[in-house]
Amino acid sequence: MSVYTRVEAAEVTAFLRDYAVGELLDLQGIADGIENTNYFVTTRGGAFVLTLFERHAEVELEYFLELMVALADHGLACPRPIMADDGSYLRRLAQRPAALVERLAGKAVTEPSVAQCAAVGEALGRIHRIGRHVHRRRSNERGPAWWRVTADALRGVLQADTMALIDAEIAFQAAFDTQHLPRGVIHADLFRDNVLFEGERLSGVIDFYAACNDILLYDLAICLNDWCVVPDGDFDDARARAFLAAYVSGRPPVAGEAAALPAMLRAAALRFWLSRLYDLHFPRAGEITHVKDPGHFERILRLRIAQPQRTAALWPA
Ligand SMILES: Nc1ncnc2c1ncn2[C@@H]1O[C@H](COP(=O)(O)OP(=O)(O)O)[C@@H](O)[C@H]1O
Ligand SMILES: N[C@@H](CCOP(=O)(O)O)C(=O)O
């Protein structure tokens, strides 16, 4: 579940007095999600999602909200934050920072089609372009420094050969030159559960609460490893081609990006393997029970190491 902080209708009614959204008609806790407390809020003025943020600092939340406003202003299908009467997007409710955003139609897909992968590639290219308008900055809290700390935390609980693979990959990534790769705002967690569809139409990209400034190609690699794979982690060529073609039509790559993709795919696999391993071995008290399979990303990492040329033919000429 993802209602960590309970709020009553009376509290939400009082909270909504500072927004021009009309009277509260309905309040429903949202069961999906991992990190924050989310409620569907229906008022006379529309349908919204109320998020109570459970762990981020206000300065980070200002970054996420600035990004969502910029994306919505530039026409990306994503939840537009609702401005309170005092001009702010971030308020407080039940001793938590809280924001009200537009509720979007659609559902997440578990088996994406070629057309849906193309739509996600197109949306990711747009996020990377529009991200240039965001003035605040945020570093990637799950970047190489976090990989090393997390690997050290896992050292006592993993088998020696598993640990050796993690250490070798961290060393490979440290030696890999990324200076020439374009950087900007990345979503950083654009998995299947963070995109809503109505049929083949992408109706919303959600959950910008891992967004940060990092290598754009790394964001692309995160998506490819999730959206464009068959269950064993190998690429589905048609989906990967469609995703890449749609992405590069919106954000043309610079020299050297295609050659760096195999390493970025490995970095993306390592990052989610580590977070899943950490969540499995060190579950957070009182939090989510649906632990995601770390083995999936171990398989993906091993495959990407074994097949460095695999994406060469998928990247548009
Ligand atoms: N703006 C929105 N419109 C419609 N549904 C949403 C919206 N935001 C969140 N949801 C629903 O709430 C769920 C949890 O949201 P998410 O942001 O992924 O939570 P968390 O940050 O806790 O992981 C999503 O899977 C989706 O079903
Ligand atoms: N999409 C991820 C979960 C989100 O990552 P986290 O580091 O915030 O837990 C996955 O499928 O593992």
UniProtKB/TrEMBL annotation:
Could you tell me which pathway this protein works in? Amino-acid biosynthesis; L-threonine biosynthesis; L-threonine from L-aspartate: step 4/5
Location of the Aminoglycoside phosphotransferase domain: 27-251
InterPro entries given in the database record: Aminoglycoside_PTrfase (IPR002575), Homoserine_kinase_II (IPR005280), Kinase-like_dom_sf (IPR011009), Pseudomonas-type_ThrB (IPR050249)
Task: Show the GO MF annotations.
Answer: ATP binding; homoserine kinase activity
- Give GO BP annotations, semicolon-separated: threonine biosynthetic process
Q: Which SUPFAM superfamilies match?
A: Protein kinase-like (PK-like)
Lineage: superkingdom: Bacteria
| Pfam families according to UniProt | APH (PF01636)
Write down the EC number: 2.7.1.39
Q: Where are the transmembrane segments?
A: none
| Keywords carried by this UniProt record | Amino-acid biosynthesis, ATP-binding, Kinase, Nucleotide-binding, Threonine biosynthesis, Transferase
- Catalytic activity reported: L-homoserine + ATP = O-phospho-L-homoserine + ADP + H(+)
Q: Which family does it belong to?
A: Belongs to the pseudomonas-type ThrB family.
NCBIfam families found in the cross-reference section: PRK05231.1, thrB_alt
Which PANTHER family is this protein grouped with?
A: AMINOGLYCOSIDE PHOSPHOTRANSFERASE DOMAIN-CONTAINING PROTEIN (PTHR21064:SF6), AMINOGLYCOSIDE PHOSPHOTRANSFERASE DOMAIN-CONTAINING PROTEIN-RELATED (PTHR21064)
Provide the protein name: Homoserine kinase
**Species per Swiss-Prot/TrEMBL record:** Immundisolibacter cernigliae
* Gene it is expressed from: thrB
